[in-house]
Design brief:
heterotrimer, A alpha/beta (about 250), B mainly alpha (about 325), C mainly alpha (about 290), A: alpha/beta, 6-stranded mixed β-sheet, 4-stranded antiparallel β-sheet, 9 helices, about 35% helix, globular, B: about 325 residues, mainly alpha, 16 helices
Amino acid sequence: MSEAVLRTQALRKNFGSLEVARDISLALPRGCRHALIGPNGAGKTTLINLITGQIKPDAGTITLEGEDITAAPAAARVRKGLTRTFQINTLFPDLTPLEAVTLAICERERVAAQFWRGLASQGAIVDESIAILERLGLGNAATRATRTLPYGQQRLLEIALALATRPKVLLLDEPAAGVPKDESAMLFDVIASLPDDISVLFIEHDMDIVFRFATQIIVMVSGGVLLEADPQTVRDDPRVREVYLGSSGHG
Amino acid sequence: MTSLDSANQKPHAWLARQSRWSPLEIAFWLATLLPFYFFPTYLTLASQIAITALFAISVDLILGYAGIVTLGHAMFFGLGAYAAGLLSVYGWGEPISGLLFAAAIAGLAGWLASFVIVRVQHLALIMITLGLGFLTYELANAMTWLTGGTDGLRGIRTWPIFNYFRFDLWGYTAYSYSLAALFLGFLLSRRIVNSSFGLALRGVRENVRRMPAIGSDYRRHLQKIYVISAAIAGTAGGLLAQTTNVVALDALGFQRSADVVVMLILGGTGRLYGAIVGAVIFLVARDQLAGINPQYWYFWIGLLLMFVVLVMPKGILGGLASLAARWRGRG
Amino acid sequence: MIGQIAIVLFDGFAFGMLLFVLSVGLSVTLGLMNFINLAHGAFGMLGGYVTVLAMRQLGLPFLLALPAAFLTAALVSVVFERTLFRRLYKAGELNQVLFTIGVVFVAAAVATYAFGTVQQVIILPSWLRGSVEVFGLRLGVYRIFLIAIALAVTALLVFGLERTRLGAQIRAAVDNQRMAQGLGLDVERIFAITFALGSGLAGLGGALAIEIVGLDPSFGFHYLVYVLIVVAVGGLGSITGSFVGAALLGIGDVAGKYFVPEIGSFLIYLLLVAILFVRPLGLFGKR
């Protein structure tokens, strides 16, 4: 396996007496397609929040391409290439997809603060924005207000915004949450066809999709990593079966 | 291939359309010249309106575009007014440098305040803007030796513009001067809102939580627009001092901060013409109704506010725009 | 000098207790629904005018006029809440601010129309007038009465929130509205009741305020600023916070105006900005 792009070392977080992250050590290799699974309340979203800087860990370190980013602000991590999407749509309701993606590219190119230059004159950026939207099948919706888009297209826009930051590591928090099954397969086809140099970690509940798209699966239970292995091993592991089928006892 | 190209051009064309000058806009600015010919007795009022509209634009930049609710922006208007006024009282009455001085002082105060502003949200933000506004007012009230206190700052003498155009009794020069300043301020604001920076501000307004997730250091954006807005508000204040030759404490008052928000809501926030239209309607109505008790003036303002919030949340211009869109959709 | 300081502390504390009664309702409703109700002071003004009317027209004694003020403000507020305010809970703070400021404007105009702009006075029963000497200090009887009422209100609120079913529901809803809804609590009903109680307390505060600060149509506006300072400094939804904030503001205001009259109010606002800069959520605020 090639070198790890993102690495967490003994990451720990407590909310009061509740342990939401217990000594989590992970390594994501370049170009990986890892799935993060576990029952509700296992701490999957919390882990993404910790890695991307929405929450500060109590202990442990996070490194991106060998650089310690444990203390870096969330926005700085994104600029270094560590990007996430949200389980609940976190979009700009009154902007059009074209504007939203263009904004993300402007931030990446550090031109968002230029107040003297008209947006329409940023030709290359707008071209890239259009290309991203077309890749996700949003080309026809580019100039409609986000809040008027169907839900499935809004989920795609979540991913488009993340891609616009040119991520090295992409953390997808239930990208297909709330999307009908046939559409969610299409959504994951898009994810599977992302460039090979992007490392992807996604949270997903639908086991069919997980086994189809993930090359490696991380199983979390009550704040800790239960198991990290290839799909076949996970499928056969009795503990995983118990967590999902038996009385897990974890809320 | 050609069809794909034209499909690609569509978003470009759409973006370009967002910032193009429409014939309606050009007609609007031509109409601002009408008072010279048709209402020469109202030029003083017209000048007040131009000044207030510039102030309203400054508030729209932070409130309508960046989503920072403020109830204390008169602070910067008043600071600009006192800055320009004091410069003249102490012997330098050249108007244009006076305006730049007013903008610089207000901008500096805005820069200092911006460190507080970007730290807080919701009620705390409203309270901080309110508190800073009252703070400045009380300070000016206490420093009678400098500001003249409740008597107002007197003895301002403004030299002719370009050493040629004298300020006349009828307000020809005053209105021309204020209108020119408004137009320049408008051009600058228009540039800002149509830039990538303006887009970033709308992003903050629409969803501040997403901004860090697309790598945006949005607090710096907010600080920057706050300074620009404060400088424009200071310019408006400086204009008032120079065209009326007096600065009263109410230049800093809460009333002015609240009135300007009312104007924005009336006209429609997040659109620069909303600020101008709101200022025109508000000041003309107040001028026409000046005879009646001010308490009843605020009765109607109060009813209007409740009505606009419940029925036309996007203001008069926003309401007209959606009516027009519906009409077009039908036609 | 020490006597002066003691008197200023006493007067300031009494004023603070008045501010506490006026503002604690807003703190709880803001913490509950995040609804910025700038009309809270207007309900205080309503209570004031109800008291004046009840005593002058109906000849009610002061002690009976107080509950009348509470009840009227509570009833009127719940009508407003059910018909108008609840449409704005999801409307964004700017719309809430503007709408409720509109209510304040209209209320002030109506009060002017009905009562004129003159300061209203009421005649207190004789046992509330004058002063008593305690440890060589002359303390106003009415101010002692005010402190006693405020402490009683605090005790009732704390008891009500800690020990009753409704109190437990309110606390749950303040802490986490989604979870409260998930548990099957009728958050809307809880809020309507809380809103009525909070506005009723404002009405009571308005009634109590007449003797201390007077009553005219600008009351709703003028004391709104004080009320907001108390809420913001204390922290949303915190009774302790409102109590401490109100006491601090009352003492600070009276002391400032007594010892440094030139810059008294300036110091208050400076303190407000400084506190919110260091603690944007207020002294006792949790979120």
